[in-house]
Every structure is written in structure tokens, then in C-alpha cells.
Amino acid sequence: MEKLPRRFQFYALAVTAVASGALWIGAPSISWDRWPELLMFTVLITLASMFPVPNPRGGVITITATLFYVLLCVHNPATVLLVSGAGFGLGQAISRGWVPWRTIFAGAQLGLSAALASSAFRSLGGSLENPGVLSLLLPLTLASLVHQASNNLFISWYFGWLRRMPFLRSWIDEFKDYLWDNLLTVPTAALLAVLYITVSPLTLLLYLVSLPAQRWAIELYLQHRRLFGQAIGSLVLAVDASFPQGKGHSRRVADIAVSTARELGLTDSVVDGIEIAALVHDVGMIGLDETVESNEIGDSSKFLEHVRVGAEVAREIPRRDVGDIVLYHHERFDGTGYLGLKGSQIPLGARIVALAEAVEPLIRSSPPSSGDSLDESVIRKIRDGAGTLFDPRVVDAFLTVAKDDPSLLHSGSDPSASMLVAQPETRS
Amino acid sequence: MSASGRIYAAILRATGSFAIVGAASLVLWRGVTLQDFVIVALMVPTTWVRINLEPKGYVTLAPLVVFTGFLLADTAVALFVAAVSPLVGAAASGRQQWTNSLGEAGGEAIAALAGIVLVSLVGLQLRTPGSVGWLAPFVLASASYICLRFLLAAVDAKLSEGVRLLTYSNAAGKSIAENLALLALLAVGVSYLGAAYGQSNYFMLAIATIAIVEAYNPFKQLSDQRDVLFASLGMVAHAIDLKDAYTGRHARDASDIAVRIARAMRLSEPEVRKIKFAGMLHDIGKIGVSGKIIRKPSSLNVAEMAEMRRHPVIGAEIMRPVELLAEASEIVMHHHEHFDGSGYPDGLRGEQIPVGSRIVLVADAFNAITTDRPYQKARSKAEALKVLRSHAGTQFDPQVVKALEGVIHLVP
Asked: Rounded distance, CA B54 to CA B71, Å?
């Protein structure tokens, strides 16, 4: 991002002008007499915005929000505008390099958001005199929402242009994405604000001490997630090797299931469960004799057995949903499947995996020349199954994804750069 | 598990049930105040944060509420919180076994009771922080709570996993003591805040507790992910057993036996961990070998034998790219080497064979002999040991066989 588009420069200029205007008007009320506190806040915010903590859900988060919320409880809006804007801008300049437009814009938009939130806090009757749900928690929660909404507004306005996405939608998406993280900071901020007033402003420093420990834990968590992925991956390799549909099948089924689940708006934790289940859905196959050919698998009683055994194996993972998805992934929507579950009796995850499993070979065998869209005949086949084989809602979601994200159709990434392939099954 | 382990667990469970009923009736008899309700309610978020430790043990934030109870509430309330917290935690996370939780309840109750009894024995009384002479009884009560929790956890680890006290105090035991001490400190702060805003304002009590829960949350997530990670290895082990279908537990039992032997031989904890993984996954290479060969009841011809003998190499190849398992792959690679050099794939002998491989070989053989197989009925542990002894020095490392003899009553 060396050269910024002209349009953005105007936008940044406008935001900066508004922030400066607000600062000019509010200047008389800035509490300069408490300058050591202001200095401490500026330094802390600068440090915090230079200290990114990896977000377990991807990307990084900075812990500046907590500091802003403490700040807006204990100072007036003009002071908040000055301190948070200056601190955040400085932090950006130091950690990401001094790019005038971007840095000043970052500071200005953040200062404005925090100042707005601070006004909201005050006008909602927020105070630290006698902290309670109505006097502190509720106003602070609403103020945090104002801060987040305004901050997201500035950002998504800009990115809406850049990515040609409808602005309202990207704003709402952004707001939803960070809502939970944001709300979680409120109790801590409330506590720190009370301590700030009743004990000493220096208690904030104590809080900062705990951050490296938290970061350490999060980093280790992410490492464990990666290791978990690898461990599952090795199992998946083994499963695919002893299964006629061949290598990469499980991974591709998982990719399709995950995208479909996201399209359906499921939460991260649910999507995680679906991904794991989709990866190991055929694990019961390991126990099957290789004499069972793929075409006769359909009506073999051994096949039903693989589902049961697979579910039993998958239950080793301490998540109920995974085992259930594996157990029910061969159910049909109209209730004519193996175990006779019907419609919403079948876990949603299992309905998704069922579709993904059926779709994966179709996509793979469709001619590569079909390019960036699904073959019409494939779409027709899938549509035909809606309501009988598949959940129509899941079918719609999948077709939407397939249209929006064609990369899904040829995720030919071959994770099995490996050993099991060097040892092919001897089949009779 | 050994007989003493079972008795210990039963005693804890009995104590747990007794403490829950006793403390609950005591609280009801003395009368419940609004504050008691608040403190008991705080148990829910604090027990939700549960961090499982390696090799054994756990930390939850419930002691924060117990310590706060020491300072602000009646001792009966503190005892009640301690005893009930494992059950509440189990309900909150929804995946604990109730019998385990009851045992944990016993441990918590004993620890809390020790603190309370000790304080009253020396003639002191627990009081609100800030009042005259509050510090000494609190320090006494919380210190004895911490000591007992530590001791009980160490005994549990010794009995159920064979971890020695010194090893334990350097690993999980240390985390337990440190975290509980930190929670005692935090409880003082929380109680100060709670007391400062008067008996009617519980807002600060709740906010402070929730903020602490939040700060601990990354560690909970880490622990949960680690549990899932280890469970996934269990899943892989189970899947391997499908290939060799006489039991679904062989790999894990073999791993447990190997771990027992390794601890009896006083290997370091990282080494034990490697052996644990290797024990679970030692046959992962069989996944690449045709099931017809593996399950063939008659003896194998030369070609089949050659294919079968490739499984340690294939297994090591599967494990090597997985960070967590890379170190254990060496053990898997050599788990069919014989002590006299007649094994495969490299024909290593004696001390050349990694100690983990020598242990896994013995554990694997022992478990195989004591379980039903297609071509042979299960034999008793004594018979199995006799077989192993007769091959000690040729196939098996005599030292490993000897170590197994020492822990034979502890293994499945």
C-alpha cells in the first residue's frame, strides 16, 4: 500500500478536518491540569497499538479497546479525542511506518469514535461515583457499541470503495464480526475504570503486565490448533489411502462443507466441528476389507458398519457434534437413509457433510474446461436432490458459494505429498 | 489402576458427597443471605475456566470464590463453594464424568476444610479485609488450602499415573501452587472492592470476578485445544486399531503400559511424553499395509512378510512431518528391533536401540499376549510375564522387562 488512491486522500482529509474541528471546539474543556494522566494514557495507547495479540479467530487484535473504554469513563470527550487520537496515531506510525495520510487518518477516525462514545457514556448517565449496572455497565456497554460502530463505519466506508462491496453490508459484517470481542472487553474496562478512580491511575500499569502472559497463551493456543490440524491431517491421509475415492477426498469434502456452513451463517465453533467431522467422516473405512469395491459399497451392510465404527472413533474427540455428524452423514433428508432420520432430526452439520460428500466427486469429475462455474448438469443433479437427498437450504447455500467463490471448485491442493501414496493398496 | 488408587478415589468421592450435603445443610441451617447467593452465583463463570495440566491435575478459578468466601462470607459458604464447584464446572462445560467430579469435590472440600479447621484451632477467626487482624487467619487458611490441594493432586498423579512427587512438583504441582497463590492475592483485591462498596453493592464483586475470568480465558482455550489435540491422537490410535480388528483399545493400553514402564525407569517427563505418543501410534504404518495380510490367521509368505515389515518405516514417515510427533517417530521406526540385533528394519542391538523403542516393544508384546487375538486366546499377566522373561536378552531388553515386573499390578 505505497500509493493511496486520490479518493482516499480526500476522505482522510475530510475525516481529519472533522476531528480537528471537534478538537478546536472542545479545546477549552481539555483537562490539562491532569496532564500526567493524559501522558500516561497516550503512552499506554501507543504501546498497546504497537503490541498486536494474535486473534484466535485469525488476524491480530490490539488491546487498545480496553484502554479507550477506561479513558472515556474517566475523562471528558474532548480530552478523549485528543489522547486516543494522538496515542493511536503514534502507535500506527511507529509500528507500521509513517505514511502521513494513513497515520493521520487512523488517529483522527479513532479519536472521533472514542469521543463519540465518551459523549454517549456521559449522556446515558454513566458515572463511576456509585458503580452499578445502570450507572456504569449499561452506559459503558452502549458506549462501546457506539465506539465500535463508528470505528467500523470509517473503515468499511473506505474498504467498501476499495473492494467495490456495498458499504452497508460490509459495515454490518464488520460490526458483527467484532461484536463479541468488543463486548468481552467491557467488564474488564469497567473494573479498571473503577480502580483508576478509587485506587490509583497506576493500576492500569498492572493490567498491562498481564498482557504478555495472555499473548503467550494465545500464541500457544494457535500452535496447538496447527498441531491438531497436522495430527488430523495424518489420519486423513491414512483414511484416504484405504478408501477407493482416493487421496484428497476428505480434505475437499471438508473445504466444501466449511464454505457451505459459513454461507449458512453458522458460528466459528460450529464450523470447526463440521470441518473436523468432514475430515474424518470416512475414518470407519479403515476397518473395511479392501475387497469391497466402491460401486457395491452402496448397499453393503458393511457400509453401515463403517458409519457406526467411524462415529465411535470420532467420539474420541471431546465434542459431541463431531461424532453425531459422522454417524448421520449418510442420512437422507426425506428419511430414507440408513438410520431413517428425517429433516431437522438430522444434525445440520451432517446435512452439510452429506451434500459435500455427494458433490465432491461430481465437481472432481466435471471437465476442467468448465472453468469458473459449475457445470449445468451438475447443478441440475444437485437441485434434483434437494428435498429428497439433501436439505434444500443447504443446497441453496452451496450453490451460492459455488457461484461466489469458484476457487472452491478446483481446490486441487494436494496435501498428500507423501508416503502413504508411495505404498498403494493392493487390491484384488 | 492399582487397588490403592481405587481406594483413594473412593475415599475422595465419599468425602465429596458428604461435604456437599454437610455444607449445604450447614448453610441452610445458618440462613442464606443475599451475599451468599451472589458468591455462589460467581461459582458458575469461575468453574467454567478449567485448565487441565500435564501430566495430571487441573486448575479452575473456583478457589478465587472460595478465598473470597473466606474473607466476606460464612466459612460454611466457602466450604459449600469448594465442594460443589467441580460439579458446577462439570455441568457448565458439559463433558465431565460425574464420578470424577465427585472425587474432585472431595479434594476441594478437604483442602477448604483444612484451612477452616486450622484457623479455628489456633483460635483465630476469618474476617473482612481491612478489619483488625484479618490478614493472619486468611494467610493461614489459604496457605493450608493451597498445600493440601497440591498434596492431593500429587498423590492422585502418583497413584493413577505413577508420577513421582519431585517430578510432579516441578510440573503441574508448581502451576497449581502458583495459580492458587495468585488467586488468593486476587481474592483479597476482589474482597476489598466488594467490601468498599458496602454490603448491598455486589456489582463490583461480580465485575471484578468476570474481569479475572476474562484474563484467564486464553489459558482455558489453550487447555481445551490441548485436550482436543491429545484426543485426536487417541482417535488416530483407535482408527489404527480398526485395521487390526481384535480390540479398539490395544494402542492406548500399550501406550499406558509403556508410560508406566518409562516412569518406573525414571525417564524424564519429555521422554515419557514421546513414549506415550509412540505407544499410541506405533502401528500407524499398518494403515498402509493391506488388511488381508494383517488379519491373515496363518503364517505369512516371504513377500507378505516383507510388506508387513515395512510398517515401522512407513509409520515413522507418517509421523515425521507432524511437529508434535516428529520426536516420537524415531521410537516408532525402531519398535521392532530386537535386543540381540535380530529385529527390523535396521538390525540395531542393545543400547543402539532407542530406549523408547525397547519399552514400546515390551508394552506392545505384553498387551498382545494378554488380549484375545484371532489365533490365540488371552493369557494371564503372569503367563505373559513368563513369556517376556524367556525372551529377555534376545528379543527384549532385560531391564525393561524387569521394570514391567515392578509395575505389573498397575497396568491393564
From this structure: 32
Q: Which residues of chain A have pLDDT under 70?
A: 1-4, 54-62, 160-165, 241-246, 287-300, 302, 366-373, 406-428
**Complex confidence, ipTM:** 0.79
Q: Which range is least confidently modeled, A165-179, B184-198, B250-264, B380-394?
A: A165-179
Non-local CB neighbours of A292 within 8 Å, separated by 6+ positions: A300, A302, A303
Cα-based angle B159, B162, B166 (whole degrees, multiple of 5):
105
- Report the alpha-carbon distance of residue B158 to residue B263 in Å, rounded: 10
Q: Are strands B58-60 and A60-61 parallel, antiparallel or unpaired?
A: unpaired
Q: What does the alpha-carbon distance between residue A168 and residue A127 come to, in Å, rounded to a whole number?
A: 33
Q: How far is CA A211 from the centre of its chain?
A: 22
- Unique residue bearing C-alpha cell 462498596: B197
Ranges of each domain in chain B: 3-219, 244-410
Contact B288 A418 (CB under 8 A): no
Q: Which tens digit of pLDDT belongs to each residue from B113-134?
A: 999 999 999 988 888 888 888 9
| A72 and B CB contact within 8 Å | no
Distances (CA, A) of A104 to A27, A90, A146: 19, 9, 21
* Alpha-carbon gap, residue B232 to B234, rounded angstroms: 5
Q: What are A361-367's contacts with CB under 8 Å, separation 24+?
A: A361/A245, A361/A249, A363/A252, A363/A256, A363/A409, A364/A252
What are the φ and ψ backbone dihedral angles of A96, each rounded to 5 degrees?
A: -115, 5
- The superfamily CATH assigns to domain A221-410 is Hypothetical protein af1432 (1.10.3210.10)
Domain locations in chain A as residue ranges: 6-208, 221-410
How far is the first Cα of chain B from the last one, in angstroms, to the nearest whole number? Answer: 7
Q: Which fold is adopted by the domain A6-208?
A: Arp2/3 complex 21 kDa subunit ARPC3 (1.10.1760)
Tell me: the pLDDT tens digits for A120-162?
999 998 888 888 888 899 999 999 999 999 988 887 777 766 6
Residue-wise pLDDT for A23-36, tens only, equals 999 988 888 899 99
Comparing CB atoms, the residue among A218, A228, A242 nearest residue B229 is A228
Domain B3-219 classified CATH 3.40.50?
A: no
Domain B244-410: give its CATH superfamily: Hypothetical protein af1432 (1.10.3210.10)
Query: Which cell is B317 given?
Result: 514417515
* Nearest Cα to Cα of residue B51 among B209, B169, B227: B227
How far apart are the CA of B292 and the nearest CA of chain A, in angstroms? Answer: 7
Chain A residue numbers with beta carbons less than 8 Å from the beta carbon of B287 are 238, 241-242, 286, 420
Instruction: Tell whether B204 is within 8 A of chain A (Cβ).
Output: yes
Residues 6+ apart with CB under 8 A from B357: B278, B330, B331, B332, B333, B334, B335, B337
